[in-house]
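anyone seen this seq b4? input:
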Amino acid sequence: LCGFICGWPWGLLVGFIAPLLRFALFQMPPIFPIGTAMAFELAMYGFAAGLLYKKLPKKALYIYINLIVTMIAGRIVWGVVQFFIAGIRNTNFGLQAFWAGAVLNAIPGIICQIILIPIIVIAFSKSGLFSNEGTVKTM
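predicted toks r here
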């Protein structure tokens, strides 16, 4: 959401810091390995959402396209970081673990994002409170 509204630099920064701040405040998720992989994943979400929103046409359909591409990119980054962490910890992280963590366990979050993010982005766009240039045209 930050990437859409504030642009990719802020989206990247806020995405990276959010899981670390959450750990500092609530001791969850554990900073290693979950919080570390999540920091890189959310940084990619913020970066990709902000960059694609700036580059793509300002139409509602492209928010959905942006969101899907962004979620795929973020989950790939999460998988790559988890793979490296598994190597450091001398554990296995295969395709089944990636599929379970990045897709199956994430289905509720994916659905919530696909429903809520476009509504919020369009509302912010129509309010004039956008800093990531542009107004969304609804169909």
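The mean pLDDT is 90. Residues 60-89 form the longest helix (30 residues). kinda curious what u guys think
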